[in-house]
Design a protein that fits this description.
By secondary structure, the chain is α+β, with helices and mostly antiparallel strands. About 50% of the residues lie in helices and about 10% in strands. Strand 1 and strand 2 form a beta hairpin. The radius of gyration is 22 Å and the shape is elongated.
Length: about 230
């Protein structure tokens, strides 16, 4: 993939700063000037990323930039790039969580969407599992209504009906953990209330509700922004 020389210079400077500090920036700038291609820039720079190889960084950037039109590409800010590089160190390529980092890097290198790359997002990616990522995408399509209850704002019990199962979620037995974790991350809102009688059979496949409580689960504004920046390519 051919990258604009100026962008290659700026990216090389930012990557070098994250690895070696400000002292390395002049060398990165000279290398970038001479080559202009992102992958070659970082390779010739001889950057050592420890647990993450130069080739891995090159592939990450190439995948991220492939989603950004050439005329919109910019160098990412170090407060986003540093945590992204740290986050992908121990993530296998192509997994849902590694892909979340790649999408965030795409936003951070897009002049029209860089505002979506909130500095808190790398830390949030590190706090969620692939199952929770799938749940967030599903929640962006429609809220969940679950049987369950809360005590002092903490979800204590949930019960999933067969019709509510999310096929992408591998460990359904962890749903209570997932709900509490996503709530603690500020990504979802959980409200307790009574389900309207006319919707009981539709949602829970039973007309014997007996006044049990339900939980409404929806994305917060932070969760909506997180899904858009990290879990969807569009």
């Amino acid at each position: 993939m051919t990258v604009d020389p100026k962008l290659a210079i700026e990216v090389a400077k930012v990557v070098a700063k994250e690895v070696y500090g400000d002292a390395f920036a002049p060398a990165a700038r000279e290398i970038g000037t001479a080559l202009g291609d992102l992958a070659r820039t970082m390779r010739v720079a001889g950057l050592d990323f420890g647990a993450i190889t130069r080739e891995r960084v090159e592939r990450l950037f190439e995948r991220a930039l492939s989603k950004v039109p050439p005329q919109r590409r910019i160098a990412p800010q170090s407060d986003i790039l540093g945590p992204i590089l740290e986050g992908v160190r121990y993530r296998e390529e192509g997994t849902p969580i590694e892909e979340a980092f790649r999408r965030l890097l795409s936003r951070a290198t897009d002049v029209e969407r860089v505002g979506e790359a909130h500095p808190s997002f790398p830390g949030i990616i590190n706090r969620i599992s692939p199952d929770e990522a799938h749940m967030l995408v599903k929640l962006s399509e429609e809220p969940f209504i679950l049987e369950g209850n809360m005590i002092e704002g903490v979800v204590r019990r949930i019960c999933l009906d067969e019709g509510q199962l999310i096929k992408e979620v591998q460990y359904l037995e962890n749903m209570l953990l997932y709900i509490n974790n996503l709530q603690s991350c500020g990504l979802i809102n959980v409200a307790q209330g009574a389900i309207p009688a006319e919707r009981q059979a539709e949602l829970f496949r039973t007309d014997r509700w007996d006044g049990r409580m339900c939980l409404g689960v929806s994305l917060t504004p932070l969760g909506d922004g997180f899904v858009g920046a990290c879990l969807r390519d569009c």
